[in-house]
Amino acid sequence: MAIFVNQNTKVIVQGLTGGQGKYHGLRNKAYGTQVVGGVTPGKGGTDVEGIPVFDTVAEAVAATGADASFIAVPPKAASAAILEAAAAGIRFVVCITEGIPAQDEAKVYNTLVRDYPNTRLLGPNCPGIISPGKCNIGITAGEIAELPKAGKKNVGIVSRSGTLTYQALYELKQRGIGVSTCVGIGGDPVPGTNFIDCLREFQADPETDAIIMIGEIGGSAEEEAAEFIKANVTKPMSAYIAGVTAPAGKKMGHAGAIVSGGKGTAQGKMDALRAAGVKVGQNPTEAGDLMAEIIKSIS
Amino acid sequence: MDLFEYQGKQYFARYDIPVSPGGAADSVDEAVKVADRSGYPVVVKAQVQVGGRGKAGGIKLANNAEEARFHANNILGMDIKGHVVKRLWVEHASDIAEEYYASFTLDRAAKKHLLMLSAQGGVDIEEVAEKDPDAIVKLHIDPVDGLSAAVARTAAVDAKIPEKALDGVASILVQLYRCFTEGDCDLAEINPLILKPTGEVHALDAKVSLDNNASFRHPEWEEYRATEELDAREQLARTHDLQYIGLDGTVGIIANGAGLAMSTLDVVNQVGGKAANFLDIGGGANADVMAAALEVINFDQNVSSIFINIFGGITRGEEVAKGIVEALGRVDLRAPIVIRLDGTNAEQGREILKNAGIPESKLVSKPTMLEAARAAVALSNGK
Asked: What was the pLDDT predicted at A53?
């Protein structure tokens, strides 16, 4: 088991013929992911290293039976690409595109909720998702993800930041702790999938025994997650929140990482998570240490 | 990107939101000219992006050219909470019967647009929210539906806007919403939105924050970029296309990824230091980017040590190391570097750094983020 994606997930890459799409799409395939097709309007009938390219997502789905899509197209084209995937019946859409206008993002999110309730969007502006050994969609380097181990305790990871997602994977690898699934939900203001969506899945996933959550300043997603954890998550958790020292009113690289009007501070988020029974580290390594202790105590 | 009041008003005007006749001025003579043109009495307003301008003496009423000259002369060059006034906005003074408040933002939790409307304007809206929360109508708008005139009018009724101002307020709300959505604002706020004794409603102030991600479809934003309040370091960083935010500490920071960069500031703080900046060099981290990053850090006279924190995911450790070695050949640094290189091929990267013949007084390598932070802070404190 794993959440959202596994060995049976069939992936198409929207933008497979572009620089990013090709590089990461082929890496995902090399990892063992079933990358069954690509989509680039006007390039249907060609192929990228044996992967067939189609003009539309609908054609790609009809020909390959794909149920997931990896979107690596520029910000201007990303909204249309997401909606095209949803309209073609894609169940799980991963969009790594950074720099989509907030207005477009809000419109796409609400269109999906209304018209395509069976499509889940991960991102935009996210590193993607990896269920180690089964499926890797996005830009995560597969080799830093420790495989889940049967008969041992495995950890699920959910994170807003790309590099800190890798850091979390690495911290667990260093300690030999297996990962069920690692989800990067992205740093934009309106993520398609939020902490709670992932926590709910991890709680239900028999392969996941504990959860690491990595948040950052801005918005109230971590506080909402804390409420959810208090009521619904029985699996032990550790967490880290980046941005304790970030000055107010400045966007710290991610469009969503901003403390405004005294809201969205790291301290407030850490307090909320602690109150929900989560062990909160002061840095990523400490969150890893705390998880190692958790694993030891439940093994 | 936050706009100055005068830019916000000009932006409002693009979307047919009524504002007072007026203009921007960089000199006393120009201010008097704009005042003559706008019609006395006029208000002379300091253009700074900080609250409390009025209390600081940055907003004055002038009844004639002589007074306009006097006030313009006083306000230009004035220091308001560290912001020096370089530009004025001069506009015809409005008679005010009533003051309201209106704004549109994105409610991240609800994932919908949020209208905030109140019949209590001209005051700090956060204060109103605290003392009299019922005085603010909060209405969520589905971005797919948008805001209709009918819904805007209902919101105005709910906010207890008086009958005589309802149509004017509703119409401005629809226009402001258009400005917010089509104009790609993170925030579009009018405080106060005024009712004149003659019955017209218009925007007396403008607070607009633009979504930088949408700049590709707004060529008209170019002029706003030119006036953005950036310090010299931030300006230099912008010419190199770097994600840089200037801070006031002594440890220069370079990291790959926004989350890791934020985390790096935190760790430096935890071990007793203070970061001089936030700088995310992104995924690539090649020699050009690294050299540009080091150049920007080196430009900051407060920097006494540099902490490079790289986690290789897709980025490979040996490529980062080569980039650093090459960059060091191009930039003559004042401060020593502490580097933490981890992740994919970090071993090879550290090997390359070790064999590059860089003296230890210039570059130290540490295996973990925490140890590297300690070393960088110690160096920064002259130990």
From this structure: 98
Strands B22-25 and B83-84, by their bridges, are unpaired
Contact B368 A109 (CB under 8 A): no
Continuous segment of H or E residues that includes residue B14:
helix B5-14
Looking at the DSSP bridge assignments, the partners of residue B91 are: B22, B43
Cα distance between residue B383 and residue B378, in whole Å: 5
B314 vs A114, A141, A165: nearest CB: A141
Q: Mapping DSSP to helix (H, G, I), strand (E, B) and coil, where does residue A194 land?
A: coil
Residues of chain B with CATH 3.40.50.261: 232-380
Is the N-terminal amide bond of A124 cis, ω within 30° of 0? yes
Domain B232-380 CATH assignment equals 3.40.50.261 = yes
Q: In chain B, which residues have their Cβ closer than 8 Å to the Cβ of A107?
A: 143-144
* Angle, vertex CA A69, rays to CA A64 and CA A71, nearest 5: 135
List, in order, residues 6 or more apart from A50 with CB less than 8 Å away. Answer: none
Q: Based on C-alpha coordinates, what's the Rg of chain B?
A: 26
pLDDT of residue A135: 98
Alpha-carbon distance of A248 to A261, in angstroms, equals 8
What is the token pair recorded at A1?
């088991």
- Structural domains of chain A ordered from first start: 10-122 (3.40.50.720), 145-298 (3.40.50.261)
Query: Is the CATH number 3.30.1490.20 carried by domain B21-92?
Result: yes
Ramachandran category for residue A118: left, alpha or beta (phi over 0 → left; psi -120 to 50 → alpha): alpha
Sign of CA dihedral B178, B182, B186, B191: negative
**Dihedral sign, Cα of residue B263, residue B283, residue B342, residue A169:** positive
Specify the residue for token string 């002029």: B223
**Within 13 Å, how many C-alpha atoms sit on residue A261's CB side?**
9
Residue B290 pLDDT > 90: no
Which amino acid makes up residue A214?
Answer: I
- Chain B residues close to A114, C-beta within 8 Å: 144
| Under 8 Å between Cβ of A81 and A14 | yes
Looking at residue B307, what is its pLDDT? Answer: 97
Residue type, B36: D
Q: Return the bridge partners of A263, or none.
A: A260
Q: Where in chain B are all domains bearing CATH 3.30.1490.20?
A: 21-92
Per-residue H/E/C for A114-140: HHCCCCEEECCCCCEEEECCCEEEECC
Q: What number is the average pLDDT over the span A151-157?
A: 96
**Cβ within 8 Å, pair A110-B243:** no
Per the CB < 8 Å rule, is A283 touching B113?
Answer: no
Are A166 and B280 a contacting pair at CB < 8 A? no
Please name the member of B126, B213, B275 whose beta carbon is closest to the beta carbon of A245. Answer: B275
Top-level CATH class of B98-224? Answer: alpha beta
pTM: 0.92
**Least confident range of A155-169, A246-260, B258-272:** A246-260
CA A4 to chain B, closest CA, distance in angstroms equals 22
Chain A nearest-CA residue for B263: A242
